[in-house]
Amino acid sequence: MRFQHILPRRAWLPLIAAVACRSTTPEIAPSAPPAPGGIAADVAYLAGPAFAGREAGTPGNDSAAVFLARRYQALGLQGAFPEICETGASCGATYFQYFKGQEIGGHNVGSYIRGSDPDLYRQFVVVGAHFDHLGRSPRFALDPDLLSSLRPGADDNASGTAAVLELARRLAANPPARSVLLVHFDAEEWGLIGSRAFALRPPIPASAIVFMLNLDMVGRLRGHDLLIDGSMGDSTSRALADSVTKAMKVPAARSSASAGRSDHVMFALISVPALSLTSGFHSDYHRVTDVASRIDVPGLTRIVDVAEGIVRAAATRNWPAHQSSSSISPR
Ligand SMILES: [Zn+2]
Fold it and tell me: How many angstroms is it from 80 CA to the middle of ligand 1?
């Protein structure tokens, strides 16, 4: 989650009104068996010394991006972005989407799972989480007196990153009707730079994206309510999230704590209904103490279960048509 007080709050336009037409309890499909290392191992590795806190523009961040791409390759999933060859033409797929912002450049990492329905596979649900954090930079830290100490970002956002990897594994084992695009955004901490680049140049038309689910800081549930920011969703997506949490008996609450502060904002700006899941802020946020040993692994796994339920329902049910429009200003 990005730090609010340093970066200016971005204005966003209200979503084009969309009318919910159905409200049914979604089916929760059984999950694939757990990965050998599991979510806890992924969080620990992502927040470990190998990636040095994953600060955008650093070698640790680059290594994390390659690690993520290799995980998709191991699942047999293709890259989500067009590879541009020397001729200027597109000639294949890559896991990386490079971008250059005013202050920082980076690379989103993405892959996709082809939907199982012969017609609906042309439509997409996007599942996203930022993978960058602060590394050794005190710039956005809340303990700047600790200077260049390593801030590993286990909750922010190794937790969401590991959750998306686990969702990819489960969804690839049993693809839903629509296709699912999995994307790890870079440079979120610098002001949603990676998701902005994605929304300005999505690898598929924005009109083909029915819904976006964001996961940011999902590792500290600890018996509290799961917080759902629905401020950028439409009534259909909000009802869908409510029915999934009720069906799974996961206590959940609407919250605007992350409104405007994570990557789902950028999807609202291209008129895609978007929700964000979080377990909320805590006293280790943007500090050196956001470490893997403080992650609530059963809570994180439960949030992945909910996310899987939401994605499967979103990838199957009817959605009201939304007009494609963008209110992201080019810089
Ligand atoms: Zn953050």
Answer: 25
Q: What is the pLDDT of residues 166-217, one digit of tens each?
A: 999 999 999 999 999 999 999 999 999 999 999 999 999 999 999 999 999 9
Q: Quote the ligand 1 centre to 171 CA distance (angstroms).
A: 27
DSSP annotation of 157: I
- Whether the per-residue pLDDT at 258 is higher than 80: the answer is no
| 267 Cα–ligand 1 center, Å | 19
Could you tell me the distance, in angstroms and rounded to a whole number, from the CA of residue 121 to the centre of ligand 1?
33
Average pLDDT over residues 77-105: 89
Q: Are β-strands 124-130 and 179-185 bridged in parallel, bridged antiparallel, or unpaired?
A: parallel
Architecture of domain 38-314: 3-Layer(aba) Sandwich (3.40)
Distance 29 CA to ligand 1 centre (A): 32
Tell me how far the alpha carbon of residue 219 lies from the centroid of ligand 1, in angstroms.
13
**In the predicted model, is pLDDT for residue 28 greater than 50?**
no
Q: Structure tokens of 196?
A: 């902005």
Kindly give the distance from the C-alpha atom of residue 181 to the centroid of ligand 1, in angstroms, as a whole number: 23
Ligand 1 centre distance from Cα of residue 189 (Å): 5
Q: Where are the alpha helices (DSSP H) in the chain?
A: 38-46, 59-74, 160-173, 193-200, 235-247, 264-268, 297-314
The pair of structure tokens assigned to 126 is 């996007």
Centroid of ligand 1 to alpha carbon of 289 (angstroms): 13
Per the prediction, the chain carries an average pLDDT of 88
Secondary structure class of 85 (helix, strand, coil): coil
pTM, rounded to two decimals: 0.89
How many Cβ atoms from other residues are within 10 Å of residue 291's Cβ? 20
Q: pLDDT band for 331, please (50, 70, 90 cuts).
A: low
